[in-house]
Amino acid sequence: MKVKNILYVLLIFFVPLSSCSLKYDEKEKENKNENTPEFIFEDLTFSRFENNYLKSNLTAKVLEQYADKESSYGKDITFETYSDTGELETEGRCSLISINSKSEIYTMYTNIMIKNISQGFELKAESLKFNSKTEQLTSAKNDKVFISKDNTQMEGVGFSASAVSNSFKFEGNVKGTYTSDDEEDTVDEEANINEGAE
User: Fold this and answer.
1) Which of 25, 26, 90, 133 could form a disulfide bond with 81, CB atoms 3.0-4.6 angstroms apart?
2) For residues 53-85, b (16+ Cβ closer than 10 Å) or e, as one string?
3) How many Å apart are CA 162 and CA 177, to the nearest integer?
């Protein structure tokens, strides 16, 4: 698995979203409460093009940026990245995201899925934190993370992935399955025999 590619996808989307701001005069700044959203975008679509080709697309039901210019929050996020030939490379989603642009930490919550089509890799979790300074993706110590790649499915707790070392690990409670090509062929043959018998 190319961890670096998966973590790069997170950088593509969340760093530009966290850097939006407008300058206000001092009087308006004094009236702003840091607990009040400065901007609220509803049904947002953020698309990035290179050489007239769509490279990435992000949608959000709601995206809020707060007056402190460091905090943003999003709801019902989906994203896709595309190859230079326009083929879908990566897709993903999360129900909620918290973005801290000062610390460059992005925390995703609930119904998280990241799928890399070309690598046959899929990750599912309920909470993940991405630190773009260290290029680390981590789960909470006791949260389960599910990974599927080709014929291998595994789950565990205490997940961490590094784009620097291009590796991932679980701290505990790891279990999984591997299905060989021979076993898959046998299962398919049995299914066909059973269908014919009915």
Assistant:
1) 90
2) eebbbbbbebbbbbbebebbbbbbbebbbbeee
3) 23
